Amino acid sequence: MLIRPPESIVRMPNDAEIHALTELLVSKMTDNPSDDDRQTAEDVVKNAYIAVFDNYITDCPGYAGKLISVTYGGSECFYENFVERDGKLIKVSTEIN
Fold first, then answer.
1. Residue among 73, 69, 65 at smallest CA distance from 13
2. Minimal CA–CA distance to 46: which of 11, 12, 92, 81?
3. Count of CB atoms situated within 10 Å of the CB of 82
4. Could you tell me if 68 and 52 are in contact, meaning their C-beta atoms sit under 8 angstroms apart?
5. Cβ-contact 47, 90 below 8 angstroms
6. Over the stretch 69-95, which tens digit does the pLDDT of each residue have?
7. Hey, where are the domains in the chain?
8. How many Cα atoms occupy the beta-carbon half-sphere of 14 within 13 Å?
9. Is the separation of the CB atoms in 21 and 89 below 8 Å?
């Protein structure tokens, strides 16, 4: 049985991470968001399944740091991964289909 070290344990997002995800979604929707746009983004994030890995490390040289995995409520095929760089969330492109 594989035992993961404590630093690789997944956790739920904190309020700051939820806010950052909401702001990122709003910015993808429009340059000048309305209150309805903001509410829509908040609802999407609220209904998503979000897992945070504070100490994610790739198997080979690459990324080490926070990884946020978001699976949206519509289907298991609607997901995005984000990493944190310079205090900002950056969407990671999917390379495996």
1. 69
2. 12
3. 21
4. yes
5. no
6. 999 988 889 999 999 989 889 999 877
7. 8-92
8. 4
9. yes
